[in-house]
User: What shape does this take?
Amino acid sequence: MSAPTPRVQLALNVDDIERAVAFYSKLFDTQPAKRRPGYANFAVSSPPLKLVLFENPGSGGTINHLGVEVGSSAEVEAHQTRLATEGLLIDEEKSTTCCYARQDKFWVNGPDGIRWEHYVVLANSDAPGFSSLFTDKPDNVCCATPHSDDTPAEQAEPVGPADIRETVRRHYAAVAVVAGESSNKPPSCCGPSSFDVCGPGGEAVFGAALYAQSGEDTMSNAVAASLGCGVPTAVADLHPGEVVLDLGSGAGADVLIAAQRVQPGGRAIGLDMTVEMLELARRNAAIAQVDNVEFIEGYLEEIPLPDVSVDVVISNCVINLAADKRVVLREAARVLKPGGRFAISDVVADADLNAEIRASMTEWTGCIGGALNEVDYRNLLSDSGFEQIEIIETHRVHSHATAAIVRARRTTAATNASSRRH
Ligand SMILES: C[S@@+](CC[C@H](N)C(=O)[O-])C[C@H]1O[C@@H](n2cnc3c(N)ncnc32)[C@H](O)[C@@H]1O
Assistant: This one.
């Protein structure tokens, strides 16, 4: 029977694999779980330990690396998000073959140079595999050689819109898990990723602190878990009786604020694709005792609402995450009533946001890599059936991007967005 996860992993270099296997089999009263030329691992159940041995003659008696084995990719991502939030530099590897197994993992450097990995074994492999971080080294043992610190955090490129959306979903699922676990703690400054989360003076550029600056309620758990880059409800001019739709509602802060503004008679709908976020938002709505709200599962690209059913579309730092913004903006126009308002916060890229940043999925999930520039934003809004377009910079969030309020009205003419039956 294999040992339970999570468990600590101790990976040792040994001079002679046969002698080491014999010794550790006795020490832990356990036979190796996996044995290959120059390699063995033990799944020790008590205490929970994954012991890995690499035959590296001349290096015997030293630590190869350390790790934490967990039970699922979501747990890997949750730890990754937590550590990125703590400011550690993360090297991520998805679906990599290493140590005769296919794994999702990430690495961080300890202060004394010891490398720690968090990983999940997805499947066994006949191939020894090499960590992609170590392919510049000829060593015949996976994970054997430290790599330089300047390896880009995300190496695997998405191949299409579905990959981008799935990467974004997985990222925010992990963020929701972390936020749900720490809802009583003050939020850290500020976002969950590797972008510039604080301004030059250390001021917050994402999240709950922006609500305090705008004079909005800052007490709810939902606001504490905000990942936004502005406060759309502060500029949406909401009135009693209106129906408000929040695209990518996350933990629900803007939905809860909007719901209170449109009372009596109005309601607020939060749309999100990430089940973990929807669960968090529903819990936050119950705690806040706001009942004219609804959180629905779905994609921005296929909003599960009828045509012409919404007075105001709001959104907070989400449109930049979509792979195809044109489809999203057409959907927003489709569900809005003629003359309906579009009032969102989003990241807007500088004209010089470079291809390297755009190609990084860490920058994309961190709300920078996928951001439109102002010209493209205006053109897409106009093409999608909006008029009276204004884009007003609020604060810098990155050396090549700014947060902005984007407002527009759905034209009173019929939109060219396709109608959908629901
Ligand atoms: C940066 S967070 C912002 C959450 C929230 N608006 C806030 O201010 O805290 C992005 C949210 O949008 C959701 N999201 C991203 N792309 C989406 C898509 N294509 N369809 C539906 N939801 C999406 C994510 O699941 C996540 O909850």
Observations:
- Residues 130-159, 183-196, 418-422 have pLDDT under 50 and may be disordered.
- The longest strand covers residues 336-349.
- The pocket of S-adenosylmethionine is lined by residues 165, 168-169, 172, 226-228, 248-251, 253, 272-274, 277, 299-301, 316-318, 321-322, 367 (CB under 6 Å).
